[in-house]
């Protein structure tokens, strides 16, 4: 996939995932939030808690999952910690890290609490 086509496919995948979370009552409060540690694709509110969502798009869900590296997870953790500094409960906020896999036809698979594995 060319760079710009890949970029726009990623944006479309993020839009689809944001819509899915919104329909489940968890509104996305930030998109492509950037801190000094890195970027978080989507952040959704779940009651008093937050869900940090990494969106991976590829031909298949398996290929999309292969694109998540330990280094990326570490950067997302760091950025999430920065984001939490602005929350009322700070680091004590309930959080979850999900990975949303989007395949070439737009099917979405959510891996809840994916970083715990």
From TrEMBL:
Q: Which domain of life is it from?
A: Bacteria
> Which InterPro entries does the record cross-reference, listed alphabetically?
Restrct_endonuc-II-like, tRNA_endonuc-like_dom_sf, UPF0102_YraN-like
Task: Tell me one GO molecular function of this protein.
Answer: nucleic acid binding
Residues annotated as transmembrane: none
Query: HAMAP family under this entry?
Result: UPF0102
**Which PANTHER family does this one have?**
UPF0102 PROTEIN YRAN
Q: Give the similarity note.
A: Belongs to the UPF0102 family.
Q: What is this protein called?
A: UPF0102 protein HYN69_14950
């Amino acid at each position: 996939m060319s760079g710009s086509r890949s970029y726009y496919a990623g944006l479309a995948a993020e839009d689809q995932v944001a819509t899915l979370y919104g329909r489940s009552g968890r509104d996305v409060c930030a998109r492509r939030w950037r801190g000094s540690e890195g970027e978080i694709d989507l952040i959704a509110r779940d009651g008093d808690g937050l869900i940090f969502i990494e969106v991976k798009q590829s031909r298949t869900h398996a290929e999309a999952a292969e694109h998540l590296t330990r280094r990326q997870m570490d950067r997302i953790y760091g950025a999430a910690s920065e984001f939490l500094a602005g929350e009322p409960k700070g680091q004590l906020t309930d959080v979850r890290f999900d990975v949303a896999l989007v395949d070439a036809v737009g099917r979405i698979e959510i891996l809840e609490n994916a970083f715990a594995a």
